[in-house]
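RECORD CONTENTS
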Amino acid sequence: MSSEALRIGFVPEHFSTPLHFAQKHYGLHATLIPFPSGTGHMVTAIRAGEIDIGIGLTEGWIAGLGKEGFEGDGGYRLVGTYVDTPLCWAISTGAQRSEITSVASLKGSKIGVSRIGSGSYVMGFVLADQQGWLADKTHFSDTVVLHNFENLRNAVNSGEADFFMWEHFTSKKYYDSGEIRRVGEIYTPWSSWKIVASTKLTKSGDARVQTLFEKLDQGIKHFNEHQDEAAEYISTELGYTEPDAREWLKTVKFPAHTEGVKDEVVRNCVSVLRKAGVLVEGKGLDVDAMVVKV
């Protein structure tokens, strides 16, 4: 069992660069499985036994464990921290949607999300809470599930949805091309990426998880020390321009040690998600049960 390659779910965006380096340069023994549709899809996959590890957005993982009604033991636990900095979510609409002039004009509109429970879904509630729209229950007229970034872009141009939120640098080239238009931005009030392991792994104390942390730490160190290589990889393999890749490199901070999750980060995220109405106190897992030391 322990000699088998871990199946690691990840989002094939610029943030995945240290993971790529861990495998390319430091022998990470894993099958990397891309999930371009994001964290919500990985929640489904890890519960279905399709992946062993997931690297995704903090709010998506925590929302999945904090909601009522999940079956069994929830399927996964938080075990590590992948990115220390918050995520900048760009708020986008269609290129010709002249009636949408500001974030304030989005009240009562149709929000496009990749999946229910995904980061794009959860951050809609955080946005509504920050804007003071939750009190009168008219924050959004509809939530339109569109599965992936391409569908989201098409939907705001067709009118199927009015706006959506996605990571800034991934969205930027579509602003530059004129396909979609930027309305504003919102930052996560927490560090943005976490590592989860299936409960099958956490219960067995599988040694491969420790090895994963060691290899990721090496990949991050390599990333920090070889910024030119990182920019080249991001711009040639992941579809970003080199100027955008270099600009992103200035904004992101990965931890020196990926093992472990700070208790206050999880508590803060749960608190904000409860305030925003995503989670309900007394439902789902307690904060202390969401994190496991492997």
